[in-house]
Amino acid sequence: TFINIEGSVAIWGASHQALTLLAMTHSTNVKWIADSAVFKQGKVDPIRGIPIVSPDEMLSKKPENIIVLAAGYSNEIRNILIEEKEYLGSIFLIEDIISNYKSRQNI
């Protein structure tokens, strides 16, 4: 798997691409999926049953790690987490995860 992170994990972004990517991992420590779109909140990931919640609800759970899977908004979301929400855990952007995976695989 290319997502191998210790501790509790939350995903920010509930797009169909993000959910597909999540379904392809074997990670069992993803506990929450956050999305700003109200119509997605209160639903669950159809493959693993992970709840989709608001970003504020996800942050109230105090995840140790957040993986940002909102491709076009990654830097904006990272800035929100750090500057506005004062999040102190680890933040991983999908672009960085894929780049690191490719370099390990010599792709």
What distinguishing features does this structure have?
five-stranded parallel sheet, globular, 35% helix, 4 helices, single chain, alpha/beta, 107 residues
Question: Could you explain how this protein is built, in words?
Answer:
The chain has helices at residues 16-23, 55-60, 74-84, 94-105; strands spanning 9-12, 30-34, 52-53, 65-68, 90-93. It has 107 residues and is of the alpha/beta class. The mean pLDDT is 88. It contains four helices and five strands, in the order E-H-E-E-H-E-H-E-H.
In terms of topology, how is this protein built?
Elements: E1 9-12, H1 16-23, E2 30-34, E3 52-53, H2 55-60, E4 65-68, H3 74-84, E5 90-93, H4 94-105
Parallel strand pairs: 1-2, 1-4, 2-3, 4-5
Instruction: Please give the share of residues in helix.
Output: 25-40%
What is the C-alpha radius of gyration, as a whole number of Å?
13 Å
Low-confidence stretches: none
How many β-strand stretches?
5
